[in-house]
Amino acid sequence: MVNVDASLADELNTFYPHFEAAANHASGTTSMHAERAREVNTFTILEHDVRRAFKRVNTRKAAGPDGITGRVLKACADQLAPVFTEIFNLSLEQSVVPSCFKQSTIVPVPKKPQPACLNDYRPVALTSVVMKCFERLVRDFITASLPDTLDPLQVAYRQNRSTEDAIAHLLHTTIHLDQRNGNYTKMLFVDYSSAINTIIPSTLTSKLEVLELLPLCQWISNFLTDRPQAVRVGKHTSSTLTLSTGAPQGCVLSPLLYSLYTYDCVATSNFTTIIKFVDDTVVVGLIFNNDEMAYLQEVKNLERWCQENNLPLNVSKTKELIVDLSTKQERSYQPLNIHGTPVERVDSFRYLGVHITQDLSWSCHTNTLVKKARQRLYHLRRLRDFKLPSQVLKTFYTCTFESVLTGSITSWFGNSTMQDRRPPQEGGAFS
């Protein structure tokens, strides 16, 4: 087992950067960004913001490769804040991120109980806790600076927006389709082979310039390039590689940067919609009079966009769902192919935690919620048997029961049937 762990660490460290070869970094773009960025004032981080970020650190999180723990930052926030404020501002001014801040240790997390190949391990990066605080301050600046013209259907990292908005828009688009004349809806739930790991820094900086985020173009480019990385499996750590493609999963900025990277992936037809929540993407096509041309063209446009932006599609995990409420008779639908591979058609799909079915019923979703609640009920009873205070039991209920039962409830509860809402002992889900 020792030899397996040692070899696995080296194999994964070679496997994870396989997108590096596919990425073609534009060298001329960087100098242009650097020259234009000098004309724009960088934003300044204030000492009290750094102090507040340090005091909010979760001390239970593991330390990064630099060994600085969250406990130290939180306990010594008043003493360390002035020093790191100067370091952070100097980094922004020179558009250079210290190498020790960029270093990451990758801990592979199995996607399946018994991984069969290297792709069955998800790379999660352990990075500097100090850098995470720095990233949060940069993230807050970016989100506050985003233009109002940004794609409204990318709901991640938008003020007063959440997964419920994405689900509600998907359902609203489908339900309000006039299906009396044989019209129906096709949904394509897109899966990427690797999303965040494929970001090309030069392409991202070009898009940040369009979004008028020039003060951070060079800094983000430097943040994403020349990142030292090693993989740790058990007690074994691989040799160090230097990467310049993608953003490590586990970095605070990575999901936001990916959202900005895909901001220009938008629908080109009035009969199609592309809804995004970070890398959870769904293409919705409204089919009138059996004419699927607009939908098929949108899928082709998405294929082309993915190729141009180094985001390979995972066709085997991409699923198509058809909502056709116009007739009870079976209808033959045109099959969908991506890169010559047929896309599997399903009766239901779990999108952002909610089960969407072909008839837009909610029995599947509510039954799943009841099953999860019953699994947690055992633990609640055990805690009660230990005579824990009622306040502790209420907190446990809020965290483990209520969060599950009320997830995206505004999107589905109003359309659920009385049978779905009945208590479990009566055969339904909720009262």
UniProtKB/TrEMBL annotation:
One Pfam family here: RVT_1
Domain of life: Eukaryota
Any one GO molecular-function label of the UniProt entry: methyltransferase activity
InterPro entries assigned: AlkB_hom8_N, DNA/RNA_pol_sf, RT_dom
Domain Reverse transcriptase: 90-356
PANTHER family per the UniProt record, alphabetical: ENDO_EXONUCLEASE_PHOSPHATASE DOMAIN-CONTAINING PROTEIN, REVERSE TRANSCRIPTASE DOMAIN-CONTAINING PROTEIN
Listed name of the protein: Gastrula zinc finger protein XlCGF28.1-like
UniProt source species: Silurus asotus (Amur catfish)
